[in-house]
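Protein record
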Amino acid sequence: MVMLHELRRRAPAIAGPLIGIATTVYFGYHMIEGDRGLLAGREIAVQLSLARQTLTATDTERDALAHKVAGLDPMHVDRDLLDQQIRSTLDLVAPNEVVILHPGESR
């Protein structure tokens, strides 16, 4: 009974620091483990790096396709590119050419 009375008497003096400590622990935990914490920031940085690599590869592929399309412009056709497209699409080979097939290579 005496202990309960003593706790009630000291509760107002202890409540402030306890709430402060609890708040500090809460925000400290979420600063490290939360959705926007330090660990999540590292993961987002890795994802950003992978996305940039994908963007670079996609840009390179887009540039190659743009060059190919520009070579097939009806106003000024690149004859070599047109010949290559016709041969690959229609499976044509000139009579004086030799075709070497590699095993496991798909068309």
Q: What stands out?
A: The CA atoms of residues 71 and 78 lie 5 Å apart. The radius of gyration is 35 Å. The helical segments are 2-33, 38-71, 79-90.
